[in-house]
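Give me the fold.
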Amino acid sequence: MPRYFLELAYKGTNYSGFQSQLNANTIQSEIEKAFSIFQRAEISMTGSSRTDAGVHARQNFFHFDYDGIISHDFLYKINAILPSDIVVKNIFLVSSEAHSRFDAIAREYNYYLYRQKDPFLKETAYYFPYKLDMGKMEEAANIIKEYADFTSFSKRNTQVKTFKCQIMESRWLLEDNKLIYNVKANRFLRGMVRALTATMLKVGTGKIPLDQFRKIIEAKDCTKASFAVPAHGLFLMKVEYNKELIT
């Protein structure tokens, strides 16, 4: 049966996360419902990267199997059905073995903060008007790249087999009056980006020194890290695949 990858973006404010849940409105449930209305067929989609309630995505993917006809106006029609805060950006015919989650080679996230009150950012960035030592925060971001085990930055209720992640990028950026933590890795643990951000903010405000930040990583204990930043500042920016998978 033919397999397709579906590329999408969404604002997660009004949703209980990415993956389907019983009696909850999710990105997956909206996509599957729109597909069934347009194609008049029920399908089950598999997501590349789960995002929690309130988290946004500039790029995410599903894959699904379907032996019907995908018309030339599929994107236009399905976007007309979908709510305004979800958009399907592209559809790709892929090999029958391709997997949107397991074939991803990297994922990139941004966590956005703003320092001066701005009503237009309140749903897509975290208001944090406190004094920060950016030099120490950048040092902390670089320290992260020295490690592979991020048990301390994973929520407890997870069923992963390993807490190891290969960090490719970890840095703080300034862009249009927003402070951004940018991180790229082969995989992420549940709650990991928010925990890294929140714990580095404690470094930046002087609540913990850099040597303690190292100790938190090395402790492999999630009670040592902070998870105290809200979901709405987090964006999944990109999911990467080998070029030959999606053309």
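The beta strands are 3-10, 46-47, 56-65, 86-94, 106-114, 126-127, 167-175, 178-185, 234-240.
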